[in-house]
Amino acid sequence: MEQDENKNLKLISIGDLFKKSWQIFKKGFWKLLGIFGIGLGINAGLVILMIIIIAISIFAGIIPISQIQKIIPSEMDMSLPASASAVWSLAGALSQFFIPLIAGLVLFLAFLIANYWISASALAMAININKDIKIKQALKQGWEKLTSYVWVGLLSCLIIFGGSLLLIIPGLIFAVWFSFAVYALMRDNIQGWEALKRSKELVSGYFWPVTGRIIILQLIIISATIILNLIAPGLGGILGIFASLFGLVYHYIIYQDLKRVKNTA
């Protein structure tokens, strides 16, 4: 599709790509799974918190004024006027709507932040498995680059989405071009638009070899998922977890090999 001065240099063979990816993946599997588990725990905690908030808001909204009057000590000889009763009823009704709404927005934001953080941390771990970094270090790296990671991811998604609105083919081309932008960020600290440009530069001249390697991995995952789901529903979902973690290493090997054939550090 594209020509490049380094066109005579070939990417790592598909067999060697899988072999090398598997070797690195095995070495860092439990750490990658640990980061995934942390993300799962955070998401579960946010869901539970949301359920609790909704339950509390509903409970607060359905307590009738008569129950509040019973709580007030009789010796105080107090009774709530009609206006106070109306205010309490209105407050209860509003609490049923606004408290879950506000809480939902806050928790949704927390959910996005947590998932981007875990995603960046998992990528940091995949990149540094051979350096034998700890989960804590990967989480720290992910947090430090969280803003830049979100920005690069958002730019990529917007461009790919925009290309898909024109035609499916431009969207697919953009997806391949910019598939290594987050690796440029996390590995080489190239940020924003420069990360996208860097990814496109590396893919230039190797569009079809890169596309082929990405498609082959996806076809294997899809085929294995279908087979496992036929054997026992749910097994495909478990495979999806392992496949997503393996894919981080797999794409990183491609990224590093593109740098090799392009003769860049």
Question: What this model shows, in words?
Answer:
This protein is mainly α. The protein has a domain at 14-71 and 81-144 and 205-261. It contains ten helices and no strands. It has helices at residues 14-62, 65-71, 82-127, 135-144, 146-166, 168-177, 181-188, 192-203, 207-231, 235-261. Helix 3 (82-127) crosses helix 4. Mean pLDDT is 84; it is low at 1-5, 62-72 and 74-80.
The amount of beta strand, in percent, is: under 5%
Largest sheet: number of strands, sense, barrel closure: none
H/E topology pattern = HHHHHHHHHH
Question: Which radius of gyration do the C-alpha atoms yield?
Answer: 26 Å
Q: Categorize the overall geometry.
A: globular
Distance between the termini: 25 Å
Mean pLDDT: 84
Number of helices: 10
Unreliably modeled segments: 1-5, 62-72, 74-80
**What is the strand tally?**
0
**Helix coverage percent of residues?**
over 70%
List the topology elements.
Blueprint: H1 14-62, H2 65-71, H3 82-127, H4 135-144, H5 146-166, H6 168-177, H7 181-188, H8 192-203, H9 207-231, H10 235-261
